[in-house]
Amino acid sequence: MATPDLSPAQLAAPTYPAELRSQLFQYVVQLADTSLILAHRLSEWCGHGPVLEQDLALSNIALDLLGEARSYYQYAAELEGRGRTEDDLAYLRSAVEYRNPLLVEQPNGDFAYTIVRQFLFDNFHYQLLKELKAGPDARLAAIAEKSLKEAAYHLKWSSEWLIRLGDGTPESRRRLDKAIAALWRFAGELTTPTPGESHLQELGLVPDYAALLPAMQAHVAHVLAEATVPLPTAPVAQLGGKTGRHSEHLGYLLAELQYLQRTYPGLTW
Amino acid sequence: METLAPDLSPEAQFQARIDADIRIEPKDWMPEAYRKTLIRQISQHAHSELVGMLPEGNWITRAPSLKRKAILLAKVQDEAGHGLYLYSAAETLGTSRDQMLADLHSGKAKYSSIFNYPTLSWADMGCVGWLVDGAAILNQVPLCRTSYGPYARAMVRVCKEESFHQRQGFEIMQTLCEGAPVQKEMAQEALNRWWWPTLMMFGPKDADSPNTEQSMKWRIKRFTNDELRQKFVDMMVPQAEFLGLKVPDDKVQWNEERQAYDFGEVDWEEFWNVVKGNGLCNHERLQARVQAHEEGAWVREAALAHAAKRKERAAVAA
Ligand SMILES: [Fe+2]
Ligand SMILES: [Fe+2]
Ligand SMILES: [Fe+2]
Fold it and tell me: What is the set of domains in chain A, with CATH numbers?
């Protein structure tokens, strides 16, 4: 399980002014929700993967993201300073309070859907962590440093699979095209800042998405070319998850995820 | 192969090596029946790891805390790893993973019947770890010294992880038993369901286990089914007492003379019924495996096709 090794100085939540603290709390919760929801989706594959080795790979990525989510939730809970725990944040908030982008809550679909979703996320996640690691918030930098190695592996894995499916068989290509058509519209939200994010970006506290885009676009172009897939014409971006307006899928996911905590409130497991 | 007694027949030399506790390796001569028995046993074990992912996988998305979710996911992932080592060990005997999977999917090959029982509450994650992994450990620790080298080595890795699993399962039970009354009830209810099926994991009574004698002679097996079952009861009854739970068998009683627990008779009719495919989840479990395999076919084909294209391009470029 992944709880990063942090020095005591890093563990002490920085002394931000109250308003900034609450804005940063929102941002860290968003990071946590994003990793948790994707980890949850990937964990649904466990035992059902297309081949044993890839079953293991999917669980590995899920475990990495779950560990990352826990680190963020723990930090968020400290920033908030109201005694909530990682589990309170994950299990006792409703769908409208969740802040993950729409992409990660989309159902697994077939393996091509899972790969396209993963590739779009990994491409963003990797560049984001690179910037966060160099950022001014020591705690986020420490979490990012640990997660960056994992994210680099995830991106390699999903890029290679995207290439295999694109330049594999006619069947795999047909399925990949379908997944791209369905999911590409969710990519834009990852790098479209909410008002809260814009504010933190202006303060220089969190990475500016505009700075991530060139590297992200270059990687997409490279991988799609290898996959012999034409670059999709930019679809109208679907936005909403990061401000709490989700697709219908999230409610079911949370109903499952939160079932025990909601049925038996206040117990220790 | 190291020759112990050059004047003897291959069969006698083979048995001499076994008796001297010298490991048999893939390239060594072995009787066809030994090879077949091992392929059956190892592939059955590999299939059990694979199918065994399903009942616990059933609770990953509903685990009650992030920590429990991570532990459970890592555990089920370990089982996939065990499957991999064991399929590889079986392949050293001249079969292939595709062949073994085909036998699983057609119903020709068996897997442990315990996985044909449903997991109905969170406490089942405790019971499966504590009892099912516990029984697996008793079955498997002796296999770390089994006569066939690749199997024995795979089992060393597997057993190390299984003992983690058991501790994690016990810890789930302990947390429930120290928790609210509703949690303790949940724990007892799960124990009531899992107790007898785990006793069945050691297989039929010795009198009804015709293969045991030969397997013991070949040192594929080192204890009889009944010996292992007794060990399990002796180990688990005090643990249940420690948890404040009651095993669902009124005949359980310490026998001073035997220095062991007496216990009731397993329902053998249920045992054979589930073995024959009539357990609650036999159909679903096998169906889930077949479906994953069939729906994964196009993925595996794409990977092969892409690798072939790469190879071809590299050849053209060279
Ligand atoms: Fe096992
Ligand atoms: Fe196992
Ligand atoms: Fe296990």
Answer: 16-263 (1.20.1260.10)
